[in-house]
């Protein structure tokens, strides 16, 4: 059954800036990660995915890379990074880093030369990026090449006076897109990747991987996403990286590609394909979008959560990859709201129970889990009252959009508190102290006030904590080879409950839970005669599932 090391991986995603500050400057750093490796080991984690650690002006917290070969000063030094790899490896842990290949920072030397005709290397680097002269109008003024909208809101085009051209950026204007049709550019990126492999990296998470190719006819559509997303040729680029770099080095490749069809998913991550090994697909991440909301549209429009849609996505991906590839299990990453606030209930009355319910719904399924930092203690969305507590570049363009659409400040702020990426990026809550045990100084973004109640130190002491529950479930995955199971789902169409059963190497299991605040009638879907109640998130009474109640049964044997 097992073919690759990463099938037994338990991955933990670290958002470096917010994980642990070791020197009191308020910013998480690499020595902070090293400090916490023991904590992660106790969670059964054996693989870390670390958000970009490269030198960057931090317009998008490091996804805007200025120097691929340097560690950001905020995060430490190359020596620190080498030590992280060394200590992790000594503890049988693997290190996966983010690989941002779609764009660089506008402060990257390539772009500096590309945009400046008087630069000695201008001719060499100009075509590393994507330029367009725009359209000259009757009055002589220039118009943007297309109406395409960037992922952060606003046009994808910005004007560069010096060359009298527009450059393309599908994220912020400080993140110009690279031209993947340029062989020299691709070769430089490949050499860079090889350099990190030689340093000992065990894998990469490929950022924005389905955007590498663009439609160079530049049709004038709005928003035009189809012209810079999932175009067939991006597979050629990924295949080239896989053949030359990823496969020969036995790396784990996590690929980010939203909206992939079944066929495309297998093209990325099927066992016989190998562009990636695992796909980050987002199928279950935004199941509650209210299309009628015109004030804060798109992902910002919070609607009713439909559990049936979540289950549909989870079972869909399990089936797509069954025997043909490998599944990924995760609630969310650094780009989404906190799952306990989004899909659970962060009211103190139900916080612990619903967080445990969500963990049981996901983490006994087949595939490789990716736990996002703080999820294991049930960290919630932010409680920010001022726009300036938010730090994400996306927040500010989108806030202006909301105002243009006629939203009030209050409505806009609520949309941000519900949906902004910053919800997942507030500092990790290690303790109840002022800086939440994240920093001895002033944190780079405010800590959430509930850190006095929700924190690692408190949960370490409590055998019934969310942390204890995560430890138990993740340890079980290892003991009983749950990664290789194949579940039967019950009640897929119901929005109030979930249930699934499967056989692992030692036991058969039945997992059942109430997704709502209302009690439900409980009639088991399988015979419980040969089973024991192995775990539950509350006291159980026969015949009824209380609010958010979840039970895990397994055969005695
Ligand atoms: C990916 C990252 C996101 C980043 C974007 C641009 O979607 O997850 O955080 O802003 O790519 O690099
Ligand atoms: Ca620091």
List keywords for this structure.
557 residues; alpha/beta; TIM Barrel; Oligo-1,6-glucosidase, domain 2; Immunoglobulin-like; eight-stranded parallel β-sheet; 15 helices; 22 strands; 16% strand; globular; binds alpha-D-glucopyranose; binds calcium ion
Can you offer a commentary on this structure?
The protein is an alpha/beta fold and 557 residues long. It has 3 domains: 5-102 and 183-383 and 453-470, Alpha-Beta Barrel (TIM Barrel), CATH 3.20.20.80; 109-168, Oligo-1,6-glucosidase, Domain 2 (Oligo-1,6-glucosidase, domain 2), CATH 3.90.400.10; 488-555, Golgi alpha-mannosidase II (Immunoglobulin-like), CATH 2.60.40. 27% of the residues lie in helices and 16% in strands. It has 15 helices and 22 strands. Strands 13-12-11-5-2-1-15-14 form an 8-stranded parallel β-sheet, covered by helices on one side. Calcium ion binds at residues 21-23, 25, 27, 29.
Q: How many beta strands in the DSSP annotation?
A: 22
**CATH A-level architecture of the largest domain:** Alpha-Beta Barrel
Main-sheet strand order equals 13-12-11-5-2-1-15-14
Overall shape = globular
Q: Report the CATH C-level class of the largest domain.
A: Alpha Beta
- The CATH superfamily of the largest domain is known as Glycosidases
Q: Please give the domain count.
A: 3
Mind describing the biggest β-sheet?
8 strands, parallel
Radius of gyration using CA atoms only: 24 Å
